[in-house]
Design a protein that fits this description.
Largest sheet: 7 strands, mixed
Structural class: alpha/beta
Strand content: 5-15%
Distance between the termini: 54 Å
Shape: elongated
Length: 574
């Protein structure tokens, strides 16, 4: 069980402790508090210290809880801040502003408070005298270009008029509020600072490791975003590239990679950078020869029991950049042939996301020195995984089931072998019966996969825009089904009665007779644009009505064609 040190402390006790040596690490996000948050904090603290603006109404035993500070002691014996960076930074700016004001005051109380604040801001020498060159806090935030302003403000109390950072704005805000307090209620000023030091409470939580501290943060934090795995990975790369003398180059490249992943993975369930690392993880696993279907958590995999040693390698970051650029190129209009783009359009509706991991491994394993692929071989790969993933989703639904056949193929790819699924081929009779008996309801992802695949089989089918919204169309609609029920009610949800159709058309054509649907499919009603699904246009041009016989015939054609597709990709067992 992980050990924790938890001890509620007054601000003065926490910051003046000689062991308090805080570090805002490189992977943290920049300081984000604005004057609005500082104004709220000031009003809250003032209301606590002077109830109803009454100087004497304060209860010296009362406490104001400001929040937790989650840290762990790193290898340099500094308290690395995981949570509480924003509030601790703001409190130090506030205390430094008070310190400056008390420098001009010579009364006993002001001198006493100034001395207490000095022990909170600066480290002390062996005679317990503050060393003005040694702060109690340091910042190494890689993406914060203004961190030096923060440290300079704490050291000197000087803020340049040219500084526009949140640090500078908030420090000026506190200076103005303190001066306003001095002008309005002079006696309040020292009492306000004293009560903040002695009655405002922080809850320092010191964990024994970074991982434990991060877990605590994720549990406690319900306001901001917890640090992602990518933030941790960034810190490891940052440290590695800094030792190589390439810190600035890395920061620039990381920012570019963040922008790129935001563009291409914005719809991902994971944070964009986390999605990139996840796709890369499968390649790294495959290189290790791992076929185990139990996938470790992303951070745990890269930590590897050796403090992220695998990330101390320039080739890893180069490969991450190459992988991100590959996924961007996949959807550029002129990068690949129509054949490839059609395959990718089908796969974006795959019943699960496993194809993205498998394709990422394929790219990293087969790319040339210019990060290009042999497109003919790539198309063969896409055909095979499309056929396999759809068929497997019918036989054994669920993404977890797919791990068993897919993980060994990832290992095969990095060892130079082709994807074959040799031990998981389909019996023609079994897959035929499975497809005929499977309930292709709209709620099942594989239904859309099958219908998208079928639409792309038409030789006249153009490449469809991946950003166009498509629905599943019942060609024999539900209203007609109520008025003229099919003899076999199962035919209503069969593949033969369905097609993908642009959402804008599907909404209008949903419950019309076939003769009316024809006009919607062909764009002859209200002069609207026709569907781009060639199979539907062919039906509209060749049939006057769409009957139960047509549904059954079309179902047989789709299933027969898909089994032929499996056979063409050597996925039917002999």
């Amino acid at each position: 069980m992980s050990k924790l040190s938890i001890d509620q402390k007054r601000i003065q006790d926490l910051l003046s402790d000689k062991k308090s040596d805080f570090l805002i690490p490189d992977y943290q996000r920049p300081y984000a508090w604005t004057e609005d948050e500082c104004d709220t904090l000031w009003d809250d603290l003032f209301g606590f210290c002077f109830p109803n603006n009454d100087f004497e109404a304060f209860d010296t035993n009362s406490e104001y809880f400001l929040g937790p500070i989650v840290t762990f002691k790193n290898e340099n014996h500094k308290l690395e801040i995981i949570d509480g960076q924003q509030r601790l930074t703001t409190i130090l700016l506030l205390l430094r502003a008070f310190y400056d004001k008390f420098q001009l005051m010579q009364d006993k109380q002001s001198k006493s408070i100034r001395e207490k604040i000095s022990h909170c801001v600066w480290k002390c020498d062996e005679f317990d005298e503050p060393d003005m060159d040694q702060l109690k806090i340091d910042s190494q935030v890689a993406s914060d270009n203004d961190k030096d302003e923060f440290l300079n403000i704490l050291r000197t109390g000087i803020v340049s008029p040219a500084w526009k950072s949140n640090y500078a704005k908030n420090f000026r805000f506190f200076q103005d509020k303190i001066q306003e307090l001095v002008n309005t209620f002079p006696p309040f000023t020292t009492y306000f600072a004293a009560r903040i030091l002695q009655n405002v409470i922080l809850l320092p939580i010191e964990a024994e490791s970074q991982d434990t501290a991060l877990r605590i943060f994720s549990t406690l934090n319900d306001r901001g975003l917890p640090l992602s795995d990518a933030d941790i990975f960034k810190s490891k790369f940052y440290s590695f590239y800094s030792k190589l003398g390439k810190k600035d180059e890395f920061i620039k490249r990381w920012k570019q990679l963040e922008v790129l992943t935001e563009e291409i993975f914005s719809s991902s369930r994971s944070a964009p950078m986390v999605e990139l690392f996840t796709r890369y993880m499968y390649y790294a696993r495959a290189k290790l020869g791992v076929k185990d279907t139990t996938t470790p958590a992303l951070r745990l995999f890269f930590e590897g029991g050796n403090n992220y040693k695998s990330l101390n390698d320039e080739s890893v970051f180069n490969e991450l950049e190459s992988l991100a650029n590959f996924w961007k190129r996949l959807y550029r209009p002129d990068e690949f042939s129509d054949k490839t783009k059609k395959q990718l359009f089908i796969l974006q509706y795959a019943p699960n996301g496993m194809w993205t991991y498998l394709t990422s491994v394929y790219f990293l394993a087969r790319k040339d020195k210019d990060n290009n692929l042999d497109e003919e071989a790539f198309n063969q790969f896409l055909d095979k995984i499309t056929a396999f993933i759809i068929a497997y989703a019918v036989i054994r639904p669920g993404v977890n089931a797919l791990r068993t056949p897919v993980y060994p193929e990832m290992v095969n790819l990095v060892t130079g072998m082709d994807v074959k699924f040799e031990n998981h081929k389909f019996s023609k009779d079994i897959i035929d019966n499975a497809l005929k008996s499977f309930s292709f309801t709209n709620g099942r992802p594989v239904t859309r996969s099958m219908l998208t695949w079928w639409a792309m089989q038409n030789p006249d089918q153009i490449v469809l825009d991946k950003f166009t919204a498509f629905d599943i169309e019942h060609i024999y609609p539900s209203r007609r089904m109520k008025e003229s029920p099919l003899k076999n009610s199962n035919n209503f949800e069969s593949l033969g009665n369905k097609s993908i159709l642009e959402k804008r058309i599907n909404i209008r054509a949903s419950d019309y007779r076939f003769e009316d649907k024809i006009r919607y499919y062909l764009g002859k009603l209200e002069k609207r644009e026709p569907t781009k699904i060639e199979d539907l246009k062919h039906l509209a041009e060749s049939l006057k009505d769409f009957t139960e016989v047509d549904i059954e015939n079309r179902t047989r054609r789709i299933i027969s064609s898909f089994i032929d597709y499996l056979d063409q990709n050597q996925l039917i067992s002999q």
